[in-house]
Amino acid sequence: MTIVFALFLLTLLVVTALAIVRTKNLFIATMLLSIFSLLMAVNFFILDAADVALTEAAVGAGVTTVIFLSALRLTSQYERGSLASSRWIAVIVVVTTTVLLISGTINTPNLGDPNAPVHQHVAPFYLENTEALMGFPNVVTAVLSSFRGYDTLGEVFVVFIAAVGVMFILDARQGTGPEYELRVEKGLKHHLIPRAVGGLLIPFMLLFGLYVQFHGEYGPGGGFQAGAIVATAFILHAILEGERTALKAFSRNAQMALIIGGSTLYGAVGVVCMLKGGTFLDYSVLMEDPVTARQVGIIIIELGVGMAVCGALLSIFHSFAARKPVAQAK
Amino acid sequence: MTMVLAVARAVKGPSIYDRVLAANMFGTKTALLLAVVSFLFGRMDFLDLALAYALINLVGVLAVLEFVEGRIESGKGKLDD
Amino acid sequence: MTLDAFLGHFNYWVFAILLMIGFYAVIAKGNLIKKLVGLSIFQSAVFLMYISMSKVEGGTAPILQAGAVDPIYSNPLPQVLILTAIVVGVATLSLGLAIVVRINERYGSIEERELLDAD
Amino acid sequence: MIEVAIEWLGNALLIVGAASVLIGGIGVIRMPDLYSRMHASSLTDTMATLALFSGLMLHSGFTLATIKLMAIMAFLLLTGPTATYALANAAFRSGIEQPRSLNTDDQEKSAP
């Protein structure tokens, strides 16, 4: 049953990917990309990766589409043909590499083989010890925020740097005088139905984001997903009410504070752990009882992750959305 | 299943809005599918995923509406194939 | 090639094909946004490979269930790596798009050929 | 007795939901123009949402899952029609007005 399902979904993935590459219209490519991401999320779910599917859902369906569309608004919608001269070389390279990669997979273990090398090294340790060391059931969250906390810290900083980079690249004209204008004054205010429904939905989205944030130890969820969901809620608000209202409600400085605060919170927890005599990000020294201490540490750093991701995605969106398109040279 | 049909429409759909329609439809189907699959797997706690889809799907389509309106107002004209 | 081996490797083949579709878009398409779309397909293919590796036959998602008898869980480690990679992927993708937007403002084009000519 | 009846009712609802999803898919492929395609997809979506989630609720009994299912159903019922409205509005405003003539060649004629 699962196998049939997986075959079906994977075939659809390939078809969609081919269609994305074939189309000349970048708008269509964006729409197909969102379908691609939905398919990918279902695939992840079938392959037992609930947390990953939730992340893909939160990021792929909303934020990616919106950012691509705003980039298209600022550039051009059409593609004017590929570089014809290199085309056949590209096809040959690609086909050869595909054949090589497929022949390389012949000796890999079958899908789902419990004896595959991946499952032998540290994974059993994580699965066996999470309950005893952390006291909550979601192993993914445990590995993310405690066993491999350094990795996650690095990822948060990458997101931070990307957001700052986007701001530097696109916000240069902000506040430099009259040519800087907020693009959409009114947003979709004149569309009554989306506005009403959006007004109804946004509180629930925020609530759901917080639920995902703080329920991440027990079910699928955590800082990354929650950050993306909350950011999506604010993006919906910005789309509905226009940039100016959205920025008044949640200013650039507040977004920046969120990014910096989140990253700093994460790092600070590590430093506090060091000051208390442990190693960096070793939460067990935070309190008397090591299990509670780890839980507290994880909740705090998940909060940091959530804040940083939410702020970063929002500031990226606003960097794109608030920029004025230049007159297109024909 | 319907998803095949939706993808078929998305790939061959004559106008651009057919693709958007397919994307939107696909989102709803994904939410339904996730709910049913999590029921079949017997892990009802994964309904969170379907909930996420139910909430987030709207944003993409509204972004399309805004994109189109922006196009019209800036005089760039309509979208076409 | 038996049916078992076919089913067991189909995920990896799809990964290879998707990877190369994305790669083709990156190297053969002249449009910068199309290249980024290709890059994100490429990225998704890598995600798919990692998650395929984490699957254990008969297993369930690695959220421990109280009272389950001798449960099998999938490997949490690749899932963690990919979870963070997805968010980072979006962030870097938007950085790329920001650069493309600036290129478009400077040169009025996002086609590689025209950019090379303009330089 | 009553449990069996509820289970059968749940199954029946699931089948109805799946069938309407399928009908919607066929409609989206077969209908001649954009607006009727939209019609096909949105109506069947609503029906499928109602039927599938009622069926699942009957199956799951009264637990936390039921409340979540209800929430999902409510949100889907809210967002589905809104999305259709937004899409139809976008399509209409960008000049797709004549039904039955949605070939790409005809679009230029129908542009305002």
Total beta strands of chain D: 0
Secondary structural class of chain D: mainly alpha
Instruction: Give the biggest beta sheet of chain B.
Output: none
Number of alpha- plus pi-helical segments of chain D = 4
- Give the uncertain stretches of chain B in residue-range form: 77-81
How many strands of chain B?
A: 0
Shape of chain D: elongated
Round the Cα radius of gyration of chain D to an integer and report it. 18 Å
- Basic shape of chain B: elongated
Low-confidence residue ranges of chain D: 100-112
- Helix and strand sequence of chain D: HHHH
Number of domains of chain D: 1
Your description of this structure?
The complex is a heterotetramer of chains A (330), B (81), C (119) and D (112). With 81 residues, chain B is mainly alpha-helical. Chain B is 79% helix and 0% strand. Chain B contains three helices and no strands. In chain B, helix 1 packs antiparallel against helix 2 and helix 2 runs antiparallel to helix 3. Chain C has one domain: Orthogonal Bundle (Helix Hairpins). In chain C, helix 2 packs antiparallel against helix 3. Chain C starts with a helix and ends with a helix. Chain C has 119 residues and is mainly α. The radius of gyration of chain C is 20 Å and the shape is elongated. Chain C is built from four helices and no strands. The longest helix of chain C has 32 residues. Chain D has one domain. Chains in contact: A-B, A-C, A-D, B-C, B-D. Chains A and B meet through helix 1, helix 2, helix 3, helix 8 and helix 9 of A and helix 1, helix 2 and helix 3 of B.
Question: What's this model, at a glance?
Answer:
The complex is a heterotetramer of chains A (330), B (81), C (119) and D (112). Chain B is mostly helical and 81 residues long. In chain B, 79% of the residues lie in helices and 0% in strands.
Give short descriptive properties of this protein.
heterotetramer; C: Helix Hairpins; 74% helix; elongated; D: mainly alpha; 4 helices; disordered C terminus
Q: How is the secondary structure organized here?
A:
The complex is a heterotetramer of chains A (330), B (81), C (119) and D (112).
Chain A: H1 2-22, H2 26-46, H3 50-74, H4 87-105, H5 123-134, H6 139-147, H7 149-170, H8 192-215, H9 223-241, H10 243-249, H11 252-275, H12 290-321
Helix pairs in contact in A: 1-2, 2-3, 3-9, 3-12, 5-6, 6-7, 7-11, 7-12, 8-9, 9-10, 9-12, 11-12
Chain B: H1 2-12, H2 16-41, H3 47-73
Helix pairs in contact in B: 1-2, 2-3
Chain D: H1 2-30, H2 34-60, H3 64-93, H4 104-110
Helix pairs in contact in D: 1-2, 2-3
